[in-house]
Amino acid sequence: MNQNIKFNMKVMHLTVGFDQNFMLPFGAFAASVLKNNPQHTFAFHAIATGLTETDKTMFIDYVERHGSQLHFYEVPGDFAAGFTSHGFGRATFYRLLFSRLLPVEIKKFLYLDVDIIVTGDLAPLYNINMHGMPVAAVLDTNMALRPELGMPAGSLCFNAGVLMIDREKWVEQKISEKAVDFLNSNHKAAIYADQDALNATLVNNWLQIDSKYNLMKDYIPRDLQKKEINKFLEDKVIVHFAQFYKPWNTLCNNRLRDLYYEYLRTTPFSKEVGPADFKINFATISGLLKIKARELYYDYPIIPLEAVDTIRKKMR
Fold it and tell me: Residue 260 to residues 16, 143, 180, 257: CA-CA distances in angstroms?
């Protein structure tokens, strides 16, 4: 990217990292940002490996047609080549690079994973009072206490899929450098890759924000009925299909999975309307039936949901 580009002060800077396998998710993600924030202008900053120049041009044209900008960056050298195990590819580590790659005038930015659909106004999050912290994030209820990371008892862990970053404090405190050093020294313990590294680096040094800014599966009511989804989403801003619950997978057990296809249909990938991994076999059909049966029960309960809750509590 041309580092001499000047940005309007009102532009919100969003950063994303992905590879050629996540082009469709990025398209749906970008579409959701632009659709639900028409009053704002964005500068998307992307590290996207494996894309052709044609791919990049297609995305740039799409974003510009909606009044915003998209800039691509190159990964320096062999960054992240040494710590890509535990099933994570290089792209997950790209969030550690933006503090050094962005133009110097950008003082803060919002990092977002591409397995995200934005459903509301991003401005309140972007302009949040950071209270002197380098990062604002949402508590990750799936991450238990991790003493193997050197985290003291009582430490809370955040999910790194949504990070509001004060760039000046991040750079001043050398967060990226410390995270990389941690990965190099504790690679086997870091089962959640750079998310573990960032949590170990930022112990008691991050601002916890409302789950509406990173709505993961554990924050979605299990008995959410289909007719209630729109109302449930009214005050939510970011839906995150974290971990194994990807909407482009056949067995995605997440009630909000249809949001992904809703926005994908508005992109150049509009013909991609179903999971790419679908196979007709016993495991797939059985899994789908279990998911659909559970959802149908909540949509059309035989007994009141209040009774279901009472029975569930007694079984705990």
Answer: 17, 25, 32, 6
Q: Give me the amino acid identity at 200.
A: A
Residue-wise burial string across 198-236, b where 16 or more C-beta atoms lie within 10 A, e elsewhere = bbbbbeeebbebbbbbbbbbebbeebbbeeeeeeebeeb
- Give me the pLDDT at residue 44, please: 98
165: helix, strand or coil: strand
pTM: 0.89
CA 106 – CA 5 distance, rounded (Å): 11
The C-alpha atoms of residue 10 and residue 162 are separated, in whole angstroms, by 21
For residue 225, report the phi and psi dihedrals to the nearest 5 degrees.
-85, 150
Q: Is the pLDDT of residue 233 over 60?
A: yes
Task: List where CATH 3.90.550.10 sits in the chain.
Answer: 12-213
Domain 12-213: give its CATH code: 3.90.550.10
3-state secondary structure of 12: strand
Q: What is the pLDDT of residue 307?
A: 59
Categorize the per-residue pLDDT at 139 as very low, low, confident or very high, splitting at 50, 70 and 90: very high
* pLDDT tens, residue by residue, 112-131: 999 999 999 999 999 999 99
Phi-psi region of 43 (alpha: psi -120 to 50; beta: other; left: phi over 0): beta
Where are the strands (E) in the chain, listed by range? 12-19, 42-49, 69-73, 108-112, 116-118, 135-139, 158-166, 207-208, 238-240
Cβ atoms of residues 26 and 266 within 8 Å: no
**What percent of the chain has a predicted confidence (pLDDT) above 90?**
61
CA distance 84 to 300: 45
The residue to which tokens 């041309």 are assigned: 2
**What's the confidence (pLDDT) of residue 113?**
96
How far apart are alpha carbons 225 and 305 in whole angstroms? 10
Calpha distance 293→291 (Å, rounded): 6
